[in-house]
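Supplementary material to the annual report.
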Amino acid sequence: MINLNRIWAVFLRYVVPSFGNRIATILYWLTLNIIIWGSTSAWIQKQASVPNLMNMIISGFVLWQIVFRVNLETAKSLFEEITSQNLVNIFASPLKLSEWILGVMSVGLVDTFFVLLFGTGISWYFYDISLFDMGINLLFSALLLMMSGWFIGFLICSILILKGKKAQDLVYSLGYVFAPFSCIYYPLSSQYDWIKAISSVLPMTYVFENIRYFLDTGNYSIMLLLKSLGLNILYLALSIIIFVLMFRSSKNNSLASV
Amino acid sequence: MYPLVIKNLTKYFRPNRGWFSSSKSNAEFPVINNISFSLKVGEIVALMGSNGAGKSTLMHMLIGILTPSSGSINYFGKDFSRYRSALSQDISFASSYFKLAGSLTIIQNLQFFAQMYSMPKQVSNKKIDDLMLSFNLSDHKHKKVSDLSAGQSNKLSILKAFLPNSKIVLLDEPTAFLDQQTVASVRTLIKEQRDKMGTTFFIASHSQEDISELGDRVITLEQGSIKEFRTRDYLENKSCPPTQKKTIKLDLLDNEDPVDKS
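Predicted assembly:
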């Protein structure tokens, strides 16, 4: 039986102490990158007159930040317990692993909300681009990318729980591995075959394909969204199963040694 | 019913070969070797042994962060491996080796653990205030754990173990890094809780003073096996000068079959 109070406590444990820092970090990176990408795409758009280029680049960047922030914060939650030697205290309490997982996942909602809020505000303020024009499509895209962030985050957690601090570099770097293959700024059809093969099995690809489709036609593609949803459910389930198995495996050598 | 019954508990470790190790050895070595014992309600049992004897390994299995290779751990007649979360409601743990979350303040850490044990907020706030007062931590309650000294950090860990009114408290080196005044407070707290609430304590310690002052019974581990299982009377007598020694029967409570009595 899942205890909602304990899930809420886990949520507060990761959100409250770092709340100011979390907001500042999201705001800082979004502002800097939106200005860099916005200015670059404005210049290219003038030179090559590619329609909607700036819109595609900025939407892509803001939405990719959801994947990146959610996976980073998921992995950091576990990493913080390992570095502060609190992992044993937490899992020697009545807290279930499933409750910890749900608590950490709920933190992703906060990151998604603030990335969307600041991302839309900054792009509207500097470049008069309103991501809210995407309507419900924006919400679907954000939720699907949050799921992608979770599955990447739990994959990193699986390695962390086995290898401990030795795997710390992965916390900040593994999320980037998925970026070149997620077709954030370019269509799937324009890629080399080997990249296409990888990209076509990633749920993020179909979200960004759908955004480009929307910017071109004004409609969104249910098929692309469903493909992304199916792959996200599959990978999220697999990543959580792998994490649970790795957690059990880690208990064979004691969580104290992580 | 016995609060804790351990039967034929064994733990083997396989050497960690690492990702890039060239070693092909899969040989396992025993750290805990076929241990059986039980704890009675309201008794304080001390666990002794030299470094590497297996004390921490045993503790880690008792709190559920290490999976035994074989044997069983039963709390209140229920299998710990099956009902860990539910049984942990009545078990608390403190160790001088593990700190609490460094990014949280003392009060945030304690409130978090109060929620883990499903304590009502009013009850937990009152208990937190009382415990912090008795441990002289009230002035530091908004300090982050990462800013605490080793002694303060250990105090907090012990305070966390006393926060829920657990039926069993497991303590690993509870008086390490503590000043004499705090050591005395910890010992008083242990005795008070045992006397008032019938709490059972299982304490791993290197401190002879802890053991002689607190332990009703003492288990001595050597190379993963129980070497001795003695009563406090025996130990007190052993440490007396030869002229004052009483003639007492050695009460060797070795491996009684606890399951049959539970």
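Chain B touches chain A through 36 residues (CB under 8 Å).
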